[in-house]
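Researcher: I'd like a structural prediction for the single chain below. Treat it as a standalone chain; there are no partners to consider.
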Amino acid sequence: MLTACDSSPETPETTPSAVITSESFIAAAARIEATSLPALAAAVDADPSGVANQLQSSLGGRRALQAYAAAMLENGEAAHLGRQWAALTADVPALSASEQKDGGVWHPRAEDAGFFTGGIAAALSQNPKTLPDFAQGAGVASPAPGQDISEWLSARIDALPRPARAAFDQALHAGAVR
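Model: Treating it as a single chain, here is the predicted structure.
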């Protein structure tokens, strides 16, 4: 590939890393490489709610989320992923907030956080040796022996009101499907 500045071909080592936004996350996660994983992680760090919403509401989001979570775990970034998840699930009032839409009551932040949690649960269940590092990054105790990973992750949002908790749980199951 030629750069716009000169006529020399770019090599993968000299290709500038692209900034990944919540809108471009799904496409970028389709081809995760060691060099692109930090940019994906930076996108989640910069806008965890926006990325979670994009993943939850877009075609291919579940696959992209699970690929991203698996890549983070496989590349020694379980604690970082834990911090990202903790940031997304920490604000109980925001997760509890509802809005009227299409004639019904929605809990968009709870749905997005639940979906993200489901994708992480699927990846953690495939790579359980990373659970201690993930838990440390998230600032939570490791799961009890034999405890279901989705159940363990869901304990963090027990304080949500029932409708928000139901939205979280439903989205969690959708995000966890392999």
